[in-house]
Design goal:
The chain is mostly beta strands and 117 residues long. Helices cover 9% and strands 41% of the residues. The strands form two sheets. Strands 3-2-1-10-5-6-7-9 form an eight-stranded mixed beta sheet, with helices on one face. A hairpin with a 4-residue loop joins strand 1 (3-7) and strand 2 (12-17). The chain is globular. The mean pLDDT is 94.
Length: 117
């Protein structure tokens, strides 16, 4: 089973199989005052949010949410693609909607997520 490595300093999320990078995605991370928590977590739920109105989803989580075992944190899409690559979230990991949908197809509940500086 693949795992996820989030490198905060690179602002990238890597889908890994052993030491091999299967996919690499740009991300947005937490602001200085609401940093993305470093540690080892698991994906505990996956919730698709299909587009429900012209122009985009109604939720701030873009088209997909994957909750982490750290309560209140997750990996999700965004309604603001210009935020990717920046420190803008409340600690969650934001991805382009197409990227989070691709990642969600490739990982399951229980996937390990390692977040490092």
């Amino acid at each position: 089973m693949p795992n996820i490595l989030v490198d905060l300093s690179e602002r990238r999320l890597f889908l890994m199989e052993g030491n091999r990078v299967l996919r690499s995605y740009p991300i947005a991370i937490g602001k200085i005052l609401s940093r993305t928590p470093v540690g080892i977590y698991r994906i505990i739920n996956k919730v698709p949010y299909p587009y429900t109105r012209p122009g985009g989803p109604l939720t701030p989580y873009g088209t997909y949410w994957m909750g982490l075992s750290r309560r209140g944190y997750g990996i999700h899409g965004t309604n603001r693609p210009s935020s990717i690559g920046k420190r803008v979230s409340r600690g969650c990991i934001r991805m382009y909607n197409r990227d989070v949908e691709d990642l969600a197809r490739r990982v399951g509940i229980g996937t390990i997520v390692i977040i490092r500086q």
